[in-house]
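Our consortium's second objective concerns turning raw sequence data into structural hypotheses that experimental partners can test. To show how far this objective has progressed, the report includes one record in full. It was chosen at random from the queue rather than selected for favorable results. The single chain below, 176 residues long, was entered without modification.
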Amino acid sequence: MKIIAFTGMPFSGKSEAVQIAKYLGIPVVRMGDAVWEEVTKQGLPLTDEYVGKTANDMRKQQGMNIWAKKTLQKIKQQKQADTIVIDGIRNIEEIDTFKKTLGNQFVVIAVEASDNTRYQRAMARGRPDDSMNLKKIKERDQREITWGLNTVIAQADIVVSNEGDLEEFKSKIMIF
């Protein structure tokens, strides 16, 4: 089984890469879903504030790899798939957990886009846990950097630039 994990700063294009995988019929396990499940379980609204706080609190309480452990449970349910995509790796501890369990079939692809491009996308996307405030978006960037996201991006096996249009990005992602 081949496992492709997408990572990148918020609004870099990870969700588009995941949509391409879904279009191709590849099962996707979104790490953020585990966080959303926990937020909902706690009876909190799915806002950037509560999603970020819950993700952070759980990492402090149960280790930086807590979301990788929860994601592995979901991956094990996809036994028949030849390829699975993981969306949303944020730190090296998560990568180490996946590599230890999944071995060398695990590949990390970082999606990169400039801050300006990402901020424009953020204002247009409108997902429930997205902020429409540039200050809040920058705070989210900083929060994810403190989790180790920059290190994950720097150590990715493959880096894909996403500065162009959607068709150009699709052509880059579909080769994997």
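The partners drew two points from this record. The first strand starts at residue 2 and ends at 7. Residues 12-170 form a domain with the Rossmann fold fold (CATH 3.40.50.300). Both points have been shared with the crystallography group to help prioritize constructs.
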